[in-house]
């Protein structure tokens, strides 16, 4: 067994890689902008008080191949599988985020559409055991009101029309999922999609939701937070390490019962989120933009399908926020030294 993780030194990808190291599963890490130091630092921060575990992880790190890869280039992608013919699983996370897509639609289509198709083709051509890729909650559109009751948790089979979309990114995810199911039906391959909501944690460096890092990391470092929406805005939040665990478990399960899965998470208002942080950092300073009543995302999603499939329930919001705060502080100390 050997995994390829594309986008493997990114925000979620690096956590997936560390998760595989913990399981002693060989991994090839591919990224267009390799940040090897950041990926190794995550492992160091997580096991800073466990030198024996760090030594074990170091063995895995030393055996890991880090490669530069543009997933939109089919020849480059195929070369990876020719160089590492023992790759059996792929977790595909190489994607341009919403703001990047809007800034450059051509590049966005190359990476997010052609890059995804390249991975589907590799699944067929190299007879992979499974490909799991990151879809998104944005597949459900930009407003929860499209689903009626504000307390309703959106399920995987719920329909969203194009009229209810805001992000080109979300529509690209729709096309990815549609195409994936074509490959499953016509080629007999094993492909699954996960639809994360707002993924929070320390270390997010790009994208239109940098506030999903800043809301807790800034207070941890004694800095104020400015959130670009009302304190009453509601979103669904999940900790980054839990998402990584979900990706790996879904990849490893021998047989899956479904194609698409909501990751789940905790549905809270921005004010509730602030109070969670303040419980840990009492002097945290927040500013909201009350002119923006909500984010262009759904408010709640049902995760029962994934919980039953992989027998994993994400940690509590407070546990996730506390972990992020501790990690941010430790990282800052390392930088200072």
From TrEMBL:
Alphabetically list the UniProt keywords.
Carbohydrate metabolism, NADP
Q: Which Gene3D superfamilies match?
A: NAD(P)-binding Rossmann-like Domain
Q: Name one Pfam family in it.
A: Epimerase
Q: What range(s) does the NAD-dependent epimerase/dehydratase domain occupy?
A: 4-254
InterPro entries (alphabetical): Epimerase_deHydtase, NAD(P)-bd_dom_sf
* TM spans (from-to): none
Q: Which PANTHER family match?
A: ADP-L-GLYCERO-D-MANNO-HEPTOSE-6-EPIMERASE (PTHR43103:SF3), NUCLEOSIDE-DIPHOSPHATE-SUGAR EPIMERASE (PTHR43103)
What protein name does the entry list? NAD(P)-dependent oxidoreductase
Its lineage reads:
Bacteria, Pseudomonadati, Bacteroidota, Sphingobacteriia, Sphingobacteriales
């Amino acid at each position: 067994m050997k995994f390829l993780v594309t986008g493997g030194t990114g925000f979620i990808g690096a956590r997936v890689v560390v998760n595989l190291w913990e399981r002693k599963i060989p991994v090839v890490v591919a990224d267009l902008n390799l940040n090897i130091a950041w990926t190794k630092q995550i492992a160091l921060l997580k096991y800073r008080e466990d030198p024996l575990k760090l030594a074990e992880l170091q063995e895995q790190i030393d055996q890991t191949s880090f490669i530069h890869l543009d997933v939109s280039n089919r020849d480059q992608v195929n070369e990876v599988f020719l160089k590492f013919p023992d790759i059996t699983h792929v977790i595909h996370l190489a994607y341009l985020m919403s703001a990047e897509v809007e800034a450059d639609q051509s590049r966005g289509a190359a990476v997010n559409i052609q890059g995804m198709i390249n991975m589907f083709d590799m699944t067929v051509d190299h007879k992979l055991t499974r490909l799991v890729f990151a879809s998104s909650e944005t597949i459900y559109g930009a407003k929860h009101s499209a689903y009626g009751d504000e307390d309703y948790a959106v399920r995987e089979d719920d329909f969203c029309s194009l009229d209810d979309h805001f992000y080109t990114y979300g529509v690209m995810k729709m096309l990815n999922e549609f195409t994936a199911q074509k490959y499953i039906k016509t080629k007999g391959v094993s492909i699954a999609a996960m639809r994360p909501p707002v993924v929070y944690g320390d270390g997010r460096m790009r994208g239109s939701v940098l506030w999903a890092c800043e809301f807790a990391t800034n207070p941890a470092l004694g800095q104020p937070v400015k959130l670009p929406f009302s304190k009453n805005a509601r979103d669904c939040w999940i900790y980054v390490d839990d998402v990584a665990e979900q990706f790996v478990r879904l990849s490893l399960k021998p047989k899956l019962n479904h194609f698409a899965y909501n990751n789940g998470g905790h549905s809270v208002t921005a004010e509730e989120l602030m109070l969670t942080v303040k419980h840990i950092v009492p002097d945290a300073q927040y500013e909201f933009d009350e002119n923006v009543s909500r984010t262009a995302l759904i408010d709640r999603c049902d995760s029962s399908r994934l919980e039953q499939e992989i027998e994993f329930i994400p940690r509590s919001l407070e546990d996730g926020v506390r972990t992020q705060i501790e990690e941010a502080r430790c990282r800052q100390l390392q930088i200072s030294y």
